[in-house]
Amino acid sequence: MAGTGKLRQRVPVSGRANFEYDRIQEEEHTDDVYQNPNNRHPIEKILETDKASVVVVAVLTALAFALRFYKINHPDQVVFDEVHFGKFASYYILGEYYFDVHPPFAKLLFGLAGWFSGFDGHFQFENIGDSYTQNHVPYVGMRALPAILGSLTVPVVYAIMKQSGYSTVIAAFSAAIILFDNAHIAQSRLILLDATLIFFMSLTIYAYVRFQKLRYREFTSEWFGWLFATGIFMACTWGSKVNGVLTVATVGVAVLIDLWGILDYKKSPSMDYFWKHFAARAIGLIVVPFIIYLSFFWVHFALLPTSGTGDSFMSPAFQETLAGNEMLLSAQEIRYYDTVTIRHKDTKVYLHSHVERYPLKYDDGRISSQGQQVTGYGHADENNNWQIIPTKALPETGRGRIVRHNDMIQLLHVNTDTVLLTHDVASPLMPTNQEFTTWPRDDTSRFNETLFQLSLTDAHDGEAWKSKSGYFRLIHGQTRVSMWTHTKQLPEWAFRQQEINGNKNPSEKTATWFVEDIVADETGEDPKERTGHQPPKVPKKMNFFRKFGELQLLMLQHNAGLTASHPYASGPLNWPFLIAGISFWTENDPQKQIYLIGNLVGWWTCVVALSIYVGILGADLLARRRNNDPIPEPVRNRLWNSTGFFFVVWAVHYAPFFLMNRQLFIHHYLASHLASALIAGAVLQFILSETINYPISVEAPTMRRHKRQYVDIGLKGPIIFALFCIAMFSMFVFLAPLTYGTPGLTGDQVNGKRLLSSWTLHFAAKKTAEVVP
């Protein structure tokens, strides 16, 4: 469609009425196209009524609940990551502290669902395949939570499309892509986090669309209501799973674009007006969500007051806030001449030595010192005992004999009567690091090479060194290397023990050690008796924000550290095409399995729609460059603004995974898949209709009214929708045995379900080639 060729002149803003008029001309209400709504097909007119919309959303919702609750009690065994998230729910009920890389909101909901269902928390979800029925676990009640949220996601998708101005058929089309998707259904039927994440992500999109529709009624109570609703739902998304932060980034991008538009002088009568908009969004989309996000962790800490499996991840100060923690109960001040065992914080090996020596020549031709071996050993042994020797004069008694932060010490290996030493000789496995060995105690010729500075973690000057809680780095006084270890084992000449070497970074965080136990003091008595009777120790207090900050940092570090290989990990480039799925659960005798894979019809439709959308925008840009207007202005605005927002949602939830080095799985794409379903509906409407429903934004009282325009998809839309649903449902039924884990399949049937050769299904029959005589 050719344009008129007119150039709009910028007119100075004078007065509120002209401001409103000019502002509306820059939005999608720009074309005075008259269209008689009575010319639309009768079926379409019926479907566009409010009653028809209610019926459609009711049917979609009922089907969503039916498909997600169908045989939700099967299997009655622990499936895939239920070993983690079911276990975390039990910890909330028992009050035992745990650590996880994800924020706590969705897990708190699982704990609430378990408590409400009568779960006592004593089943520990140890292994995939453990029986719920035999252990009397009310697992159906816990699985019902994600099933409800997954079911409600379908009508929310429908509502997003309707509120964005798309027809009933188009909105139902997008909702059907989620409704019949096998991957979304499988994730929604188990104690997993993704259903909660996606539900609140969809609510965030919906609330932001409603907020944007009120942009001409700014600062009204309804405008503020949807602004704060966006922030609340965004915080719930962020609090459900670590990648929920991508939803925060999505809204951030949209808000920046929005504010850039408001900054235009035709839309802002003054800078005060702009700053009011900025302040409102800062409060509603930054301050409020952050307060809610903080509240999730406040509840998390409040419900986990006792020692648990997560203690060892946290700092000593944090651990001492937990009732029953070993550090709180057993930590003792360490004195000079105490004999101790020392362990590495991360790998848990003991600092160890024995009479065997390093070989003269290593396999790579390097020469060693042939000194006594110092290694990391994973078991209790007398060769783990080290005595702390002072390098300064000490009083005969009193607190002056306590070892303190930044003291210079020697470590005496008790069994061989040699002192720890490091020198400028390459270590056996890492030529860049220094070798650790020992030296005879009575030979003082290398005294300076046996001196080490004790650097306690997060300590103040003069702080006493304690067993259990006193994390420290041992820094060589002369060369400033830190005593360090790693998981690679030494050869047979060192009995396959871990290498101990000197890391040249004196502040290396992984070079952290702690005293496991005080074996004896200089008198040979039990150190536990020297303090006499002590009253029961009360958990210490720690500022909430310190606890929050420490946990956030650990979550980020450990999430980035999930780099180990996994048989079902896959790359982001594969996800939209369903190249590979994930095996969730198997049962051998009946040959049943749950394999997470999406509905090929829906996913490939979304890929095609994304390609068409990018192509449309590219073609439009090229045509306009040549002074042609092939797309009517209202339709173009809808493509760039509404569908463009959906595209931002898709891209922001997808592109960052290309930059990550951690384990990645196909379920990480489910959020982007929902956004691609919205884009698919928008593209379908563009193909079927040359017009759109507008205006859809709520108009201000002072705005000039425009003639309404309606989508006209005729009978084509309902027919295409019906055929698409038949295709989606057929594919869903075909893959249902892999989604629900029942019925069992023969080897040949499994082969028949493998639509792509890259799918790694269990129990597949081996194909044998016929031998031709």
Automatic annotation (TrEMBL):
Endpoints of the signal sequence: none
UniProt xrefs under SMART domains: MIR
Gene3D superfamilies in UniProt: 2.80.10.50
Domain MIR residue range list: 331-391, 462-518
Keyword terms of this UniProt record: Endoplasmic reticulum, Glycoprotein, Glycosyltransferase, Membrane, Repeat, Transferase, Transmembrane, Transmembrane helix
MF annotations from Gene Ontology: dolichyl-phosphate-mannose-protein mannosyltransferase activity
Gene Ontology cellular component list: endoplasmic reticulum membrane
InterPro entries: ArnT-like_N (IPR003342), MIR_dom_sf (IPR036300), MIR_motif (IPR016093), PMT-like (IPR027005), PMT_4TMC (IPR032421)
Pfam families from the UniProt entry: MIR, PMT, PMT_4TMC
Pathway assigned in UniProt: Protein modification; protein glycosylation
Predominant location category: endoplasmic reticulum
Membrane-crossing residue ranges in chain numbering: 52-70, 140-161, 168-185, 191-211, 223-240, 246-263, 283-304, 601-623, 644-660, 666-688, 713-736
CDD domains: beta-trefoil_MIR_PMT4-like (cd23285)
Topology of the protein relative to the lipid bilayer: Multi-pass membrane protein
Subcellular location: Endoplasmic reticulum membrane
Physiological role: Transfers mannose from Dol-P-mannose to Ser or Thr residues on proteins.
Name this polypeptide is given: Dolichyl-phosphate-mannose--protein mannosyltransferase
Protein's organism: Lentinula edodes
